[in-house]
Structures
1.
Amino acid sequence: MSAKSKQTTWIVVGVLALAFAATLGKTIALGLVEGGPTKLLQTVVNTVALGSMYALTALGYTLVYGVLRFINFAHSDVFTFGAWISFAIASAFGWAVTESPLFAMPMILLLAMAACAALGVTIEALAYRPLRRAPRLNVLITAIGVSLLLQNVGQLKFVFGTQPQHMPALIHDSSLIEISGVHIRVVDVTVVLLAAVLLVALEALVYRTKLGRAMRAVSFDERVASLMGINVNRIVSITFGIGSALAAAGGLLFALKYESIKQTADSTWVLLGLKAFVAAVVGGIGNVRGAVAGAVLIAFVEMFGAAYLSPHMRDLYVFVILIVVLLVKPSGLFGKSVVEKV
Amino acid sequence: MTTPRDPTRLLAARVGGFMPNPIVTAARSLWPLVFGLVIAFALQSLVAPMIGPFYAKMLLDIGIAIVLASSLNIVNGFAGQFSIGHAGFMMVGGYAAALVTYYGSIKLGWIAPDAYGVDVHGGFMGSGDALFMFACVFGGVVAALAGLVVGLPSLRLRGDYLAIVTLGFGEIVRVLVQQSSEVLEPKVAAGATLLDAVKHIGGPLGFTGTPTYVSATPWIENAAGEQTGHAGIFFTFMFVAIVLIAAYRLKSSSHGRALLAVRENEIAAEAMGVNTARAKVSAFVMAAFFAGVGGALFAHEIGTTLNPKELGFQKSIDLVIMVVLGGMGSITGVVLAATILTILPELFREFAQYRMPVYALALIIVMIVRPQGLFGIKELWDLKVWRRYVIPVWRKVAGGWLIPKQEGDLPIAMARDLSSERAGAQPAVAEDSPKAEATPPDEDKAP
């Protein structure tokens, strides 16, 4: 293709994109005017809550990609297991009813996080470690295999079963404040606060501690890191553990907010995990802050698209964003500009 | 056929004086297709009545699975471009074909306007079958166009990112189909425009009412000499034969070798003069074409409905499992895997809930123990057992009429024999050991 025809192609593509954006913008602007501040604020609240859940999950993808350079397809299933395990704990101990939320919530959170961290470490040791030197395609297929295994084992009768369950209300759900007709619920606030605390903790862990420095070293160059006396296998295990624990927290928050928990192989989980993954890729996979930004962006696109364009196509927007980002900047929005990788 | 690059001719020129008869050459390259058609016909008219409708339906499922898995094998096994949205192509082809047969039958007046659903029209190889075959090819072409669109990102992306884009494609197709409205009834459809028809392809419920050209009922003539049932098995296995022959000829052609080179190492392939961009996109287009044909067969199969739920991520994964277990790049391996993985769940219905866990475990274990799949890139006839026991018999039976009397007459066969001799001399090298293929191409790992 000659330079000139390439230029023409780009101009045509640009004009089409502008026209498309203008139409979209008009629809959204009309919707904004029509819906008024109530709808806008409600959408913003939804976006923030959803974004924080995506962020917690996206971080798991990004952390693992950082140290091992592969996409852990099974991560979304760890998220699912997080939701189910917290349900199982809550219903087994009956804490939801008997104890005060200040005791039950942290206990369930910690137990679920510990269980999922153990799950993640086990997966890494059994399935991924033997393939450390294998081609990436094989690791990818193994990851898909692990994902299928978790989904379907979770569905067995003696594990979680195939019936959807209802998460007991751990937090007394009431409206905290009301702004122009929008109730900001306790659950939403809890979700966002907890996610924020965990994100700050992770940030501190990665950038302020010795362990974090070791993780960054492994991410930068595994061989040199091991020469410097870092136990690479241990760091990888820890990374898997942390990522899985964050996914468990995300799962618990999801169960708290949406209350109904579908069977583990249900397509809603797959979609949720995929979107979190999309968030990680869009933000620049391997980049911790990018994952959070990507999560907020994806949640924004999804929620605003659903509210102001068409609620049926919300999955479509996310995947279109993914494909556009990958085609224009395959390293993600923050992939190269921020050099630090975890 | 007289291009100077034709290897037979080159060799002939070197040996001196030997010129193969073009008619004989053509006949020799066509016999696999004829053979395939004969088998398909035998399955339809002899085997199907014998085994009864239940196993006939299983035969159909196997045939369709082979078409789909073999098509995925082209892009996934030969070219090494990992696609996990193959059901998307299947869906595109299936819906395109269903549009043609359903609305086409109504427009052609083959169905009374007040009836619901469309039935098969015409006898064996009649007008209805012609429409159906056209629909299959049409579905393939539409899917191939989609393959072109998805293949283009493969120029910029590799490995896991490409997998994600194909996955995104599959999901987008699914979401779009779910937005459509219910299928129009024949009464309404008679006056519908093309755009109307495209908008009404069933939505989440699926495309109901497609004529069941791919039927499991054995095709027999009754006492009065009328045909009952439909030749679905024949058509399915006709397409199986076509896809297998196409895959085999592709694999042993220079084009297929270019694909294999891209799969092994893209940079090295490019350095050897392979147009990698073209190779990758064409692999996607070919794979999408046959996936579309498979989708078209699926759309007209009895007892199945095209619906976006069934043809989602799960279906793509099923196909990936067939290709991975059978061996990425092995045609016969994938055929075997597709056959076995279609039969097993039917045989072990009472253990249905353990099917997927077992598949998943098998996938993980195969990847760890034998990363190239059961067959690797080898075909059935590359195995020692086959060479020792089957080939001598085959040479005795077919030598002189189906194949040349001496294998050495053909350069490819000669090369194969030579390489096998070499492998025999040093048993420990290359091809047999999984490590040779498992060496990581480390280029993405660089910081």
Note: The beta strands of chain B are 220-221, 227-228.
2.
Amino acid sequence: MKVLYFAWLKEKTGVGQEDLSLPEGVSDVAGLVAWLKGRGDGYAEAFADETVVRVAVNQEHVDVSHGVSDGDEVAFFPPVTGG
Amino acid sequence: MIRVQEDDFDPGLELEKLTEGNLAIGGVCSFIGLVRDFAGGENVSAMTLEHYPGMTEKQLEAIEQEACARWPLDATLIVHRYGRLDAGDRIVFVAAASAHREAAFEACHFLIDWLKTKAPFWKKETAASGEQWVEAKEADDAATKRWDKV
């Protein structure tokens, strides 16, 4: 799966985009976030306050209960501020 | 039509192209968003807009389609810039054209309200004290909710 990070989530994780294999036991966004948090300080910091993290799966806004599978594109970002 | 670009745009030219050749259009309403030079009591000299290529276009197209489903529109346009912008620069342009003004006004308002909470753009402001990511405003969520279908 492809995982992308934008704005301060990119700065905190230090990663803009990465290819991952779906971690064992992970079936939804919430599970993926829990797994990512264990990958290091930057990730733990990026996801420290999950209330300010938004997610898209395959470029559609979803919530953390949304399922994830190996071919998905999952993106994490703060609430949007365009316009 | 939607466009995501680094370059500036010419509002007059955009409006001219939007209505050209369609004599059924009786009115066009447009909105232009600009980089303000203040935020939270601080002077802002510039900002950098980041976006999510691919999803941005998809979301803007969906917003435009929703507007066309809700109002009888002859033409719509969303142009959104990304990259580094200075105070006073244009950020976004939305326009809606219809036979009558009500649909044009309402659809234009809807387009910018929805865009602000659904299109994946993020602003980082540059001020004397440094750079800072802009936080989303509750007022923008409220403005989007106004258009929820009852």
Note: Strands of chain B lie at 2-5, 27-34, 38-39, 42-51, 73-81, 83-86, 90-98, 121-127, 130-133.
